[in-house]
Amino acid sequence: MMRYFKAIFGGFLLVASVCTARPAMANSDAVRFSENVNLSLRRTVDLLLRANGDSLSQIPPVKQTDANTFSVQMDHMFDYDKLPETLQRSFNSYHIDRPYSVAVLNCETGKVSLGYQFFDLNQPGGVPCRGRSREAGCYTLQVRFTPEAAKPQAAGNTWLLITAGGTLAGLGFIAWTRSRHKKRHETEPQEAPHSRIAFGNSWLDTANQALYNSQATHTLTFREAKLLTLFVRNINQVLERDAILKSVWEDEGVTVGRSVDVFVSRLRKMLAADPQVKITAIHGVGYKMEVHS
């Protein structure tokens, strides 16, 4: 029984692992995206500094404000005209293809000095504010990506849960059926070796006090089973009334002669469906069970 519960428990673990796999994958993608943006911005700053003849200044760390906003500080004004192509080439190098907006912020005031949108790269006029004069000073390059639309997963997860639920239900049904069968088997009387005696088209189960034939199953009382056992062990033999009383009722101390007749009548009714078996009264002597092939 334990192996079925282990199977069901394993099924629950499977459902839990699969249903949590997508969030885990989403978290992994978010971390990978952040790392790639970080590298892209550092590459962009490095190229812009080198374009200004600066190959020695340290590049500050990239800051991430939220899942979609990144910024890096530049102590000296860079060549803004080179920014759009340089930044886009860096994103292409790290396979970043999400739309974004760029803002160049004054370090002291936090105000936007320059900026553009991703789609400006393909506009006839190009990126705004190119060629204009810019004051020297500290600026922060900020990039904000358009939030990625959530991928529809409900249908897939629903199908998965239905399938897994059906599998678990099947396992549960198997376990329940096996358990029920086991309990029933344990509670049913167990047949002792050689406890069945066949005669005619019937057979007697002495261990469970039951009579079977092709049409019915009869549960016998203790006396009925004992009397029928006596008959089937002495087929086609005459049994005297006193011998029957002694064998079947000897433990009662007081016996009544009519008891034999009453119990024989009961057995005759149970055996009526078997034409090969007949209990015949021998006048003045007793009874005989006749079995014809």
From TrEMBL:
Chain segments annotated as transmembrane: 158-176
Gene3D superfamilies recorded: Winged helix-like DNA-binding domain superfamily/Winged helix DNA-binding domain
SUPFAM superfamilies with a match to the protein in the record: C-terminal effector domain of the bipartite response regulators
DNA-binding feature ranges: 194-291
Molecular-function annotations in GO: DNA binding
Record carries keyword Repeat: no
Annotated keywords: DNA-binding, Membrane, Signal, Transmembrane, Transmembrane helix
Domain OmpR/PhoB-type: 194-291
Signal peptide: 1-26
Protein name, entry field: DNA-binding winged helix-turn-helix (WHTH) protein
